[in-house]
Amino acid sequence: MTFKRLAFTLAIATALATPAFAANLKIGIGEDPDALDPDQSRTFVGEVVFASMCDKLVNIKPDLTIIPQLATSWNWSADATILTLELRKGVTFQDGTPFNAAAVIANIKRSQTLPESSRKSELSSVDKVTANGDYEVAFHLKSPDSTLLATLAARPGAMKSPTAFGKGSAADFANNPVCVGPYKFKSRVAQDRILLQKDPNYWDAKDFHFDAITYLPIPDPTVRLANLRAGDLDMIERVAPTDAKSVQSDAKLTYAQSPGLGYNGITINIANGADAKASPLAANKLIRQAFDLSIDRDAINQVVFEGMFTPGNQSASPKSPWYDGDDPVRARDIDKAKALLKQAGVSSVDFTLSVINDPQSQQLAQVIQSMVAESGFNMKIRASEFGTLLASQTSGDYQADLIGWSGYVDPDANLYQFAVCGGSLNDTKYCNPDVDKLLNAARGSTDPAVRKKNYDAARAVLAQDEDIVYLYAPTWIWAMNKKITGFTPYPDGLIRLVGVAED
User: Fold this and answer.
1) Are the beta carbons of 32 and 386 closer than 8 angstroms?
2) Average pLDDT rounded to a whole number, residues 121-149
3) Rounded to whole angstroms, how far apart are CA atoms 456 and 417?
4) pLDDT tens-digit series, residues 167-209
């Protein structure tokens, strides 16, 4: 640990050696992001960086109300098939390219057609985007989509410079991203740091008070906290629940938390390549149901998370209005799990669970390993860096992954792209036309009661098929130096630096 700490301190010293970074806010994050491109990105920490670098067409308030950002107002056509946005004038991208209707059209087209894009499912309802002048765009939909505005408050709504992404490959853009945002990309050293520098030409620059931001990936939450206490960091995200009381009692630190919108669970490879064909979990849903029944979610919450998280069994948290209360978290039932295995024609199951190589994830995996062994599951644990795990999941090089989703405002974004046939984040390759029909019906209605009825019906099917075994809804926990003021916690877990300053 001493060597890691020394290396980290030297990295900070190097970052601060440049005079331009005199007022530098240093933020410790839990992993190294994947591609720094809102179209390609899949990681939560990537979104943490984008929150300071890439404005979206609309944004959210802490109460999840959708508010203007690069779009100043909007309206729907009477038949809910056209969404018209008025755009902010006098805005430029960080390379000087004008932000206007043509730029929005180019962005949405890229999100829908870029081979590497992970945003295709989120924008699948959009037929085309047209310009009604230089500062007004119209989204023409194939059919009504009540989720679209909330979608534009997430990565699909992040605006990138058409000049920049038109110059080279998708990888080129990710290595030198250009957006509209308070801070522009300066440099990146993989697994070490990402540096952003303030853009003086940003349309709302007066409300951002640091010259530069440095994001430092430190997977171990204990090490992140130690570096915060040592003064090598100014702020950290995802404080371990076991450290929450210690942070709250530390007079030199400020503590903040918010219930999350997402979930953590076990994603099971159903039909994604050779690993699925060889996996007993993929072979029979009865085996997956037995695995689920072998897990005690309440015990996990107490043992691993100090009771601070919320045990869950759906993509929606039990605290969400979208949660199906008719199917609450079931109690652990080893006898029934064994009976299901017997019905499936097996008495024991060997498989490998891939996990992130941080202490909390490995502890959680070990607890699950002990629990499921009582039913006959011989579970091996394979740990890797988060980016490696995610790449392996995408390519199908896994049997089951312990992984989560940070969550968005609308329930569609937490389910649709993972569950529909060919969904852009459907790494299990699960496909059930009945689920597709129900989720598309939920998208197409503006009536919350009709939407919930369809989500509940889809969830009932998914609960039987179980390509994702949901475990809990996390609580976001931040800590920062007492000198940092103005921070507001958001349920999506992102760090928004508007109004944040140092006394």
Assistant:
1) yes
2) 97
3) 17
4) 999 999 999 999 999 999 999 999 999 999 999 999 999 999 9
Strand 377-384, strand 126-131: pairing: unpaired
CA dist 424 and 439 (Å) reads: 15
The structure's pTM equals 0.92
Assigned token pair, 266 = 């076990």
- Beta strands 183-189 and 377-384 are unpaired
Structural domains of the chain, ranges and CATH numbers in brackets: 2-51+181-260+476-502 (3.40.190.10), 58-163 (3.90.76.10), 263-473 (3.10.105.10)
Is residue 15 classed as helix, strand or coil in its secondary structure? helix
Helical axes 448-465 vs 285-293, angle rounded to 10°? 100
Tell the residue number behind the tokens 């998208």, with chain if given.
443
Written in H, E and C, the secondary structure of 32-53 is CCCCCCCCCCCCHHHHHHHHHH
The CB density around residue 196, as the number of other CB atoms within 10 Å, is 26
CB 411 within 8 A of CB 322: yes
